[in-house]
Design a protein that fits this description.
Elements: H1 6-16, H2 27-37, H3 40-47, H4 54-61, E1 66-68, E2 86-88, E3 91-93, E4 97-99, H5 112-123, E5 126-129, H6 137-143, E6 146-151, H7 157-169, E7 175-178, H8 188-192, H9 205-208, H10 211-215, H11 225-238, H12 249-255, E8 260-265, H13 268-276, E9 281-284, H14 298-309, E10 314-318, H15 324-332, E11 338-340, H16 342-373, E12 387-389
Parallel strand pairs: 4-5, 4-11, 5-6, 6-7, 7-8, 8-9, 9-10, 10-11
Antiparallel strand pairs: 1-12, 2-3
Helix pairs in contact: 2-16, 5-6, 5-16, 13-14, 15-16
């Protein structure tokens, strides 16, 4: 039985000796601290969303449409009385939480992805590694516990296959295909900084280390600045795949025996199409509001996707989780696990691995507490009876 909520006692006991937490205890507090302390380009990259950022705001506001209806006198309030463990896509997790795939973590901290891998391994959580990482697949695989590989399917199937093969060899337990990013959305915060890190050679470590990608280059990128510029231009021509369709999952199934999920779906028909094509799971997500401004909030899309898929595949959720109660609501609406993004990224920028660990422990303790105080002994029995709709 897990007792993530013991983090609360740890803090209060430390207070008896005059200790206070070094970092804020809320997602909003981490964001504000990051705004003040991180380099402007790094903060803009993490905080920014598409256009007027209406969808990013809607993702968080959508949770206000639900209220938890706690049940009392069920013997679930004692730490250790609850079981947060879950199995998703064949991966056993200590809690139904994975770190969302976030690229270019070198903007926040050197070896950022490796530090996230170490923190999630310690806590028994899952990590989803972005194709756009600053550390290679192999470096992260050597440090990680249970992790999945997120594939931005490039405009070259053989290169995509190479990424997947490398991930499986490095120990990934699932492949996550992101569907909503054939190209980057319109992101004013990055535009105001005139900052696209990929053009500086950041976030393309998996390309630069790939033998098929390197075979496309006349000169190894390490040899000169001109060679690196040519490698970056080659990357520009390969990133994103506007031709990708559900039928392409058949190719992926030929490349790997790992479970496959498709991330970035909001419409139930799209979810049904990818499950029909062989996906083992879908991840309801709008990329944290970073792609289509004015798109439906991810939480508002979740119930219809769950209903449309039924028990044919797992449904996970991403976009807007900021508190333990948010995670509880998403699970009650049918998600089997949630992917958690920006707050731990701010933690990484503020305090490295300790910052990631802190942000994740805050979410887990909050979730553990909310679960028990709402009357539930495990995550597996959560359903809509826990919720009251207020809209």
């Amino acid at each position: 039985m897990s007792s993530f909520v013991d983090f609360q006692n740890e803090i209060y006991l430390g207070g008896l000796g005059g200790l206070r937490p070094d970092l804020p205890m809320t997602a909003a507090g981490l964001a504000e601290r990051a705004r003040r302390e991180l380099p402007p380009e790094a903060y803009a990259y993490v905080a920014g969303s598409a256009s007027a950022e209406r969808t990013a705001a809607a993702n968080e506001a959508a949770f206000d449409n639900y209220r938890i209806l706690p049940r009392m006198l069920r013997g679930t309030t004692a730490p250790g009385a609850r079981d947060l463990a879950v199995e998703v896509l064949g991966t056993r997790l200590a809690a139904p939480v994975l770190t969302a795939p976030v690229g270019v973590l070198e903007l926040l901290h050197e070896r950022g992805e490796v530090l996230v891998a170490e923190a999630t391994k310690e806590l028994g959580l899952g990590m989803v590694l972005s194709t756009a990482s600053s550390s290679t697949i192999e470096e992260v695989g050597a440090a990680a516990g249970d992790w999945w590989y997120q594939l931005y399917w490039p405009a070259d199937d053989e290169l995509a296959r190479s990424f997947v093969t490398r991930a499986e060899a490095a120990g990934a337990k699932a492949i996550i295909v992101t569907a909503d990013t054939p190209a980057l959305g319109w992101r004013p915060r990055d535009l105001e900084q005139a900052h696209l890190p990929f053009l500086l050679g950041k976030g393309i470590a998996n390309y630069l280390s790939d033998p098929l990608f390197r075979a496309k280059l006349a000169t190894p990128p390490e040899e000169s600045d001109d060679a690196m510029r040519m490698a970056i231009l080659t990357w520009v021509g390969l990133f994103g795949n506007h031709a990708l369709r559900p039928a392409d999952l058949a190719k992926l199934r030929e490349w790997t025996d790992l479970p496959i999920a498709v991330k970035g779906l909001l419409h139930p028909d799209d979810a049904r199409r990818v499950v029909d094509a062989g996906a083992d799971a879908v991840i309801v997500s709008n990329h944290g509001g970073r792609q289509v401004d004015g798109a439906i909030a991810a939480l508002d899309a979740l119930p219809a996707v769950v209903a449309g898929i039924g028990d044919r595949a797992d449904v996970l959720f991403d976009s807007g989780i900021r508190t333990g109660s948010d995670a509880l609501i998403a699970l009650a609406l049918g998600a089997k696990a949630v992917l958690y993004g920006r707050p731990w990224v701010y933690g990484l920028g503020l305090a490295g691995r300790d910052g990631v660990r802190h942000a994740l422990r805050v979410l887990l303790a909050d979730f553990d507490s909310a679960l028990g105080l709402s009357g539930s002994a495990s995550v597996t029995g959560l359903d809509r009876s826990l919720l009251s709709i207020v809209r």
